[in-house]
Amino acid sequence: MEKLNDKCYAEFLDNKRLLVSNSGIEVSLLKINSVLFPFQKDVVRWALRKGRCAVFLDTGLGKTFIQLEWARLIGGRSLIFAPLSVARQTMREAKKISIACNYVRDEAEIKDGINIANYEMAEHFDMAKLDAIVLDESSILKSMGGKTKTKMISMFRDVKYKLCCTATPAPNDYVELGNHAHFLNVCSPSEMLAMFFINANREHTFDFGNGRMVTKKGTNAGGIEWRLKHHAEEAFFKWLSQWSVMMMKPSDIGYSDEGFDLPPLSIHPYFCAVESYRPKHGLFFDGLHGLKGRSEVRSATIDSRLSVLTKLVGEAKGQWIVWCGLDEESRRAADSFNGECREVTGADSIEKKIGDFEDFQDGKFRVLVTKPRIGGFGMNFQNSNNTAFFGLNDSWETYYQAIRRQWRFGQKRPVEVHLVLSNLEREIYDNIQRKDLQAVRLRRKMVEQLANFQKGELMNRAYLEKDKYKEDEVSGKEYRLLLGDSCKRMAEVKDESVDLSVYSPPFADLFVYSNSERDLGNCRNWGEFFSHYSFIVKEMFRVTKPGRMSCVHSSDIPAMANRDGYIGLKDFPGQVIKLHMDMGWVFFGRCFVQKNPQAQAIRVKSKSLLFVQMNKDSTHSRPALVDHVLIFRKPGDNSVPVTPVKNGELSNEKWISWAHGIWTDIPESGILKFSKARERDDEKHICPLQLGTIERCIKLYSNPGELVMSPFGGIGSEPYMAVRLGRRALAIELKESYFRTMAACVKSAGKSRGMGLFTGRENMGRRLPR
Q1: Domain holding 301: CATH number?
Q2: Which of the ends of the chain has fewer CB neighbours closer than 10 A, N or C?
Q3: Residue % of the chain over a pLDDT of 70
């Protein structure tokens, strides 16, 4: 019979690797403007080659020059979208490198070459007539409403070339990364989460920035806290580097930092004493409670804080920015500084906002009063080095971005930041400082993780990986255990030499046990999983004797909204049956193994099995998942009859019980011990098949002395039982820690053979013939 096609399998593994293909153009460095720094030139050339990508460079590293050069060299008609106040600033930067940039308001004003417009004008353009699109300050995607963002992504879907530019994102802000991947046609946010992330609510997780285990308790606005799957970390950063470049300073990926040193930054908090505050709903102040409570305190303490603010700004020299959060704060602050101040509000016209920002940059007035959401993103205000926050909210990103308007590469003076708060708001200050320390640590760790991959990408050479694949063998008179890829190592098994196979295939779930593309469970979707599984099923058909059986453990799989688009169940057993029949097997029968619903509810945290859900709305309740033992038969005549009654392993009375097809007496705790096999990075608990289930399959469909095989040996449950029951065992396992545990378990089975499985007295069958 035909064995595995090595070339076909190798091609399949290549296709399983997560690759983002290039869709751009190759350009010589000589064609890139000589004004750009070496790292900026390499980023431009890389972005041109990618065609659709993101440039995550920290504030002041030249994203504007990079996007202008990219648009110039990509050719055709390009359109840059920028925040309201940033568009004119980009045009001024374009003149520095002799690039013509046309400011437009609608489709009729578009010209060949580079055009720029504000995000507010997006609906006025026909994207079909554009060759390239640039999103400046592309983190704005995150702040857009769901419908607006979806519409914008849809509008740009078919534009050939796309570039996103924004500052280095927070490493735990997966929403922002997902939005960028979606816009660039890499994948949807839900696909990214399903591939690389896991719901971290109410569980211990590994903080790779701090290098220790922590307990997650909070949730984000969507109600779910996500973290990287441990085995996915390397794959995620490699994938990320294929469509984005990330840099906090040039030396992050091997360039010189000359000219890119940040000046000193000083943070000065002021806590104004407020003794008489009384909340609207309560007799005394007992802490900040939610957004409403924070807003009430902030509004009630304006007078106390304003006296501190006016003294700070009034006594200091030079230009100042005063960041406000409430309309009343902005108005009162502007009134306090009289003619030396201008206030920029959301109600101002586009022309007034742009004019005031440009006049401030040119030094025409001393104090700018505005909100971070108006002037805190994208603007270059390094003409000033003093800033005051007239109150704070809990958004670290807003705080950080506002500071970076002045504290940026190119700023020559120390930057002084003054935080004017009431003593009632200390917890907000503490929260922001905690987030700032965490963000700096995690961002640095993220850039370090990306460094090697990014160097390879920028130099247009593949990142060289060491081959982590290993093979080994442990054998005895009654067993042969193989370490390695089942698809590959099954080629060593002779045609029609296996009497019975019993196993549980890994269910499709990416990066839960390893990061190897050889891992059958390491698949992006069901289509890829069953394509990989088909190699195993086909090989099992080859090595199985005619007329003999294969028993496959499976179960329905919960469908999740973020991964599958709905909450329910997926018929995994049905797909397994279909695949086997397509490969030539005969579907012969099925047994159901009952499970304890309360234990399952605790183990998998399924609200569908909880009393509270049944009492709240039972339309969201469902029965517990049960195990399915799917029984397949290879066509042909069985040359050696299997006779469990004659072998003394089965009676007529016991057969009646087993033949019901619903096994209610399999103890869930009857499994092998596995504590030594589980590694820290394993995302899921090892779930070995119950030994009682394996025992029934072996006794029903094999004789003592025959060969029982498992292509997914795991920690050795199937070969352990085969040896205990007087059969010979053959098993293959990919993961080394599991393989070592399997070897120890199977060796112990040979020593204790003949003892009862649970009672110590049960007859386990005849000994193997020598």
Answers
A1: 3.40.50.300
A2: C
A3: 86
